[in-house]
Design goal:
By secondary structure, the protein is of the alpha/beta class. It has 12 helices and 17 strands. Bound molecules: the ligand CC(=O)NC[C@H]1N[C@@H](C)[C@@H](O)[C@@H](O)[C@@H]1O. The site of the ligand CC(=O)NC[C@H]1N[C@@H](C)[C@@H](O)[C@@H](O)[C@@H]1O has 9 residues, from loops. Keywords: Glycosidase, Hydrolase, Signal.
């Protein structure tokens, strides 16, 4: 019997994180929109590395913040804009330059499947207010302008064709078509966010549109929810769960409710007792930044290491891609997705469907860490030795027979006082992260 949720916080609190989200572990985030046309941001810091003050906001590494980065009227993005497009070129003009002429959603979905992702989260409306779906509430959308397609619908169909889950990102509290005072610190951000009850209704109505039209498995709201609309949230969320029984929501509804908490680069915290999700771009940006070449984005080893350490500590990794405006995925990003997929094809037994082990991760040095996961009664030992071709680590409190999941891994395991010593002579194709099943 399908559970029905009442529009009360008490009823919503009965919602459990569904098994698919606990098991899925790895998702693909996609930031695609008008900002993909200029595709520019300075390469400065990771979120959380520096305070969210004027220095951050006038040198914002997030290419999807291009509107605000030029709106502040100075800084690298402003200079780039004036030089490339001219001082009087309005951001809205990108709406007729974005054509997505090479976009093949089925190709994207096949790549995500090969990457070993279990779910996808696409921006439906980012802070710039441009909608990637035919919203009834604004013509500033990809059905009327630019691509003249239902980007959200077309990708949702393709992703589901590959038996992956489709999630939708919505910028709930920030929409620069309603309030676009320049943002140079978090006070500006929250003072200009959601200025009116009318906007709160707009956000509510668009969220209902997205739920009713696409039934997303993830409703990924960003930054916050309009304060004037907080009393609507219990109805919106109960409607969501009553529409998508095994749907999940994140924790960016003004800390009022969540299924899982979020970390973004270095911003936010995580704990092993509660389900959380780590999101980041491959470089410092979520939107495509043409300045971020192959040597400037996360390495394959570091991406897999992040996936392993996140999963071993009860999280999911939502790794972002920033497609080009024409609908192609930059080769350097595709290369990483395929390598992660290859690693998961060999070692995924320790990842998918696993749960956080009672054993905490062990950090031997900056380069050598050991993580643990458990699944169907087996304990998995994941030895992360990035940058080393060989390693020997003794893991205390282990005994029994350890088998590498990757047959190409050449390792010796010996019992030593009260533990097992793993000597890995060759990591095979496992990118310096060797996984063992302990029986
Ligand atoms: C912590 C937070 O609220 N971040 C907002 C941030 N989220 C990213 C996934 C991107 O969409 C950014 O553009 C956005 O500002």
């Amino acid at each position: 019997m399908k559970k029905r949720y009442a529009s009360t916080w008490e009823s919503l609190k009965e919602h459990q994180v569904p098994k698919w989200y606990e098991d899925g572990k790895f998702g693909i985030f996609i930031h695609w929109g008008l900002y993909s046309v200029p595709a520019f941001a300075p390469q400065t810091w990771e979120l959380g590395e520096v305070p969210p003050d004027e220095t951050w906001f006038s040198n914002n590494p997030y290419a999807e913040w291009y509107y605000n980065s030029i709106n502040v009227g100075y800084g690298p993005s402003y200079d780039y804009h004036v030089q490339k497009y001219g001082k009087d070129f309005k951001y809205e003009q990108f709406a007729d330059m974005w054509k997505a002429e090479k976009w093949n959603p089925a190709e994207w979905a096949r790549l995500f499947k090969k990457a070993g992702a279990e779910y996808v989260v696409l921006t439906t409306k980012h802070h710039d207010g441009f909608c990637l779906f035919p919203s009834e509430y604004t013509d500033y959308n990809a059905w009327r302008r630019g691509p003249q397609r239902d980007i959200v619908g077309d990708l949702t169909d393709a992703v589901r064709e590959e038996k992956l889950r489709m999630g939708l990102y919505y910028s709930g509290i920030v929409d620069w078509t309603f309030a676009d005072d320049p943002i140079l610190n978090n006070e500006d951000l929250f003072h200009t966010a959601s200025p009116t009850f009318a906007y709160a209704d707009y956000a509510y109505n668009q969220s209902m549109e997205l739920i009713d039209r696409y039934a997303p498995s993830v409703f990924w709201n960003d930054i916050g929810w309009p304060r004037q609309g907080e009393q609507n949230l219990p109805y919106l969320l109960s409607h969501y769960y009553n529409t998508v029984e095994d749907g999940v929501v994140n924790d960016r509804f003004n800390d009022l409710f969540h299924d899982f908490t979020t970390k973004e680069y270095q911003s936010g915290s995580a704990n092993r007792r509660e389900k959380w999700e780590m999101c980041r771009g491959m470089g410092l940006s979520f939107g495509y930044n043409a300045m971020e070449s192959d040597d400037k984005i996360i390495s394959i080893e570091d991406a897999i290491s992040l996936l392993v350490s996140t999963v071993a500590n009860n999280g999911n990794l939502l790794l972002n891609i920033g497609p080009r405006a024409d609908g192609t995925i930059p080769e350097e990003q595709e290369k990483r997705l395929l390598a992660i997929g290859e690693w998961l094809r060999v070692n995924g037994e320790a990842i998918y469907g696993s749960r956080c082990s009672s054993r905490e991760s062990i950090k031997y040095t900056d380069q050598i860490q050991v993580h643990f996961t458990e699944r169907e009664g087996a304990l998995y030992v994941l030895i992360d030795a990035k940058g080393r071709s060989q390693v020997a680590v003794t893991v205390p409190g282990l005994r029994g027979n350890a088998i590498p999941l990757d047959p190409e891994v050449d390792a010796e395991i010996t019992a030593v006082d009260g533990g097992l010593c793993f000597t890995v002579k060759n990591f095979g194709s496992s990118q310096n992260i060797a996984v063992f099943r302990l029986n």
